[in-house]
């Protein structure tokens, strides 16, 4: 399958897993884990936090409950060798990774992962639409539409 098909399938599966009965979704801007510009979506029962600066969903769980996504305990970890920072959360991974050296000239860090530039965010009704900068070596952008049911 192509990279785009895998990204669409992964996003659809993740959005499907976020469904929960509850009130209409509310979206607000918040500061989160040393990021001044994050978005919180909640339906009153569940919440998720999107950090465009990192291109990731950093939190998903019951309101006031535990985060089911792993998050680096330091909140702002140091870069690993190669310059990649593993903040945790949920992100789109360009696959297959064995193609990275041919596309971007290296096997690590992953192409398209910030801090190259934050994702652009637009609130569309009760959803958040995130669009990445053009992914190096692939000539595409990652588009994620995130919502709670």
Write up this protein.
There is one protein chain. By secondary structure, the chain is of the alpha+beta class. It is 13% helix and 29% strand. It has two helices and seven strands, in the order αββββαβββ. The chain has helices at 3-17, 100-104, and strands spanning 26-32, 35-42, 46-51, 56-62, 120-124, 127-131, 143-147. Strands 1-2-3-4 form a four-stranded antiparallel β-sheet, with no helix packed on it. It has a three-stranded antiparallel β-sheet with strand order 5-6-7. A hairpin with a 2-residue loop joins strand 5 (120-124) and strand 6 (127-131). The protein is globular. It starts with a helix and ends with a strand.
What is this structure, in a nutshell?
This protein has 149 residues and is α+β, with helices and mostly antiparallel strands. Helices cover 13% and strands 29% of the residues.
Question: What is the secondary structure topology, with strand pairs?
Answer:
Layout: H1 3-17, E1 26-32, E2 35-42, E3 46-51, E4 56-62, H2 100-104, E5 120-124, E6 127-131, E7 143-147
Antiparallel strand pairs: 1-2, 2-3, 3-4, 5-6, 6-7
Instruction: Give me the number of helical elements.
Output: 2
Largest sheet properties:
4 strands, antiparallel
Q: What is the strand content?
A: 25-35%
Spatially, the strands of the biggest sheet line up as 1-2-3-4
Q: Give me the Rg, rounded.
A: 15 Å
Helix content: 10-25%
Compute the number of strand runs: 7
The low-pLDDT segments are 15-21
Shape: globular
Helices and strands, in N-to-C order?
HEEEEHEEE
Structural category = alpha+beta
Note the gap between the termini.
Answer: 29 Å
What's the mean pLDDT score? Answer: 83
């Amino acid at each position: 399958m192509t990279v785009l098909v895998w990204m669409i399938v992964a996003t659809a599966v993740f959005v499907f897993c976020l469904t929960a009965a509850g009130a209409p979704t509310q979206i607000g801007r918040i500061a989160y884990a040393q990021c001044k510009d994050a978005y919180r979506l909640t339906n009153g029962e569940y919440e998720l936090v999107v950090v465009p600066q990192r291109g990731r969903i950093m939190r998903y769980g019951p309101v006031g409950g535990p985060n089911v996504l792993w998050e680096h305990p330091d909140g702002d970890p140091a870069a690993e060798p190669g310059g990649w920072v593993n903040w945790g959360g949920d992100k789109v991974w360009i696959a297959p990774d064995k193609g990275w050296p041919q596309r971007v000239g290296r096997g690590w860090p992953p192409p398209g992962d910030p801090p190259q530039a934050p994702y652009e965010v637009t609130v569309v009704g009760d959803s958040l639409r995130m669009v990445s900068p053009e992914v190096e070596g692939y000539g595409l952008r990652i588009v994620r539409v995130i919502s709670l049911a």
